[in-house]
Structures are given as structure tokens and as C-alpha cells.
Automatic annotation (TrEMBL):
Residues 48-137 form the Rhodanese domain. InterPro entries: GlpE_sulfurtransferase, Rhodanese-like_dom, Rhodanese-like_dom_sf. This is Rhodanese domain-containing protein. It holds the Pfam family Rhodanese. Gene3D superfamilies: Rhodanese-like domain.
Length: 163
């Protein structure tokens, strides 16, 4: 069911290549991906974002292309709670990936491990960059963003796509 919905969304975006149509399609896609019970944080929620520790749940090669400033790589396929054992379980944690599917899964693992304030970044790094917020590599601002693959890369409308 979700795959069929996603296919229709992609077809809609290709048929109507306007930013409004793409934005509406992206929001619809995200509704189908996110668990309603898992908390999201939006880019305008500065109280949470300014206090948070950011965890990048993408694969290492994606992180190395660019990431949010001061984000710690924890990965998805290779995720291990040992990577976060030094973190304060009471501090806010924001997990993110390309759009938020993988990060939600890692966020659930963190909650199960006793982390109290875990949030999934709404729209992931794609939304972050589409809203013209900065990403970094080696401490330097960059326009490059790993677009995961060409099918998912359609949701990244700003920045320079890297595959």
C-alpha cells in the first residue's frame, strides 16, 4: 500500500514540476513514512534544535559528503548503541537521515535504550537543504548533499546532488 502511494506521488511530481506540487507531494510522502507516535522536530523549533545533539543515521559515505554542523555519525546498517554510550540520556537528541525513515528507526532504538528526549528531524537533510540551511564537510560549508539514489534524489531540490 505505501509503495503504491509513493509511486503515485512520484508520478504526480513528474507530471507537475512546480515547486508547490513537489512540496505537497513531499509532505504526503512524509506522512506515509512517519510513525504518528514518534516525535518530530521542525526546522523552526529553535528551542529543541539549539539544545540538541544531532545524530546522522545515514551511511558513512552519505555523511562524508555533508552533514549538519557538529552532527555525530552513528549510521543505520552498522548502528550500535556503543556509539552513543557517552551521551546524556536526558539531553535532547535529534536524529536525521535523507528524509526521516531510517532516522525514525534509530530513534526508536534510542528510546528503547532509555534516551528520554529523542526527535526525528522533519523532512531529514533533504528538507534542511531545500530550506537553504547549511551543511558541512570537514568543518567547511558545502552545497553537496548525498541524494541516496536517483529515485529519492527527486526530493532534493536545492544543493548539489552527489550519488
Amino acid at each position: 500500500m505505501k509503495i503504491t502511494r509513493c509511486l503515485w506521488i512520484v508520478l504526480f511530481v513528474f507530471a507537475y514540476k512546480t515547486s508547490d506540487a513537489q512540496s505537497m507531494a513531499y509532505k504526503t510522502l512524509l506522512k506515509g513514512v512517519y510513525d504518528k507516535e514518534f516525535p518530530l522536530v521542525n526546522i523552526d523549533d529553535q528551542d529543541v534544535l539549539e539544545a540538541a545533539i544531532f545524530l546522522d543515521t545515514r551511511e558513512r559515505e552519505e555523511y562524508e559528503v555533508s552533514h549538519l554542523q557538529n552532527a555525530r555519525w552513528v549510521g543505520f546498517n552498522e548502528f550500535d548503541l556503543k556509539r552513543v554510550k557517552d551521551l546524556d540520556k536526558d539531553k535532547p537528541i535529534v536524529v536525521y537521515c535523507s528524509i526521516g525513515a531510517r532516522s525514525q528507526e534509530i530513534g526508536k532504538k534510542l528510546k528503547e535504550a532509555g534516551f528520554l528526549r529523542v526527535y526525528n528531524l522533519y523532512g531529514g537533510i533533504f528538507h534542511w537543504v531545500n530550506e537553504e540551511l547549511p551543511v558541512y564537510t570537514n568543518g567547511q560549508s558545502t552545497q553537496k548533499v548525498h541524494a541516496y539514489n536517483r529515485a529519492w534524489g527527486i526530493w532534493l531540490s536545492k544543493g548539489e546532488k552527489v550519488y
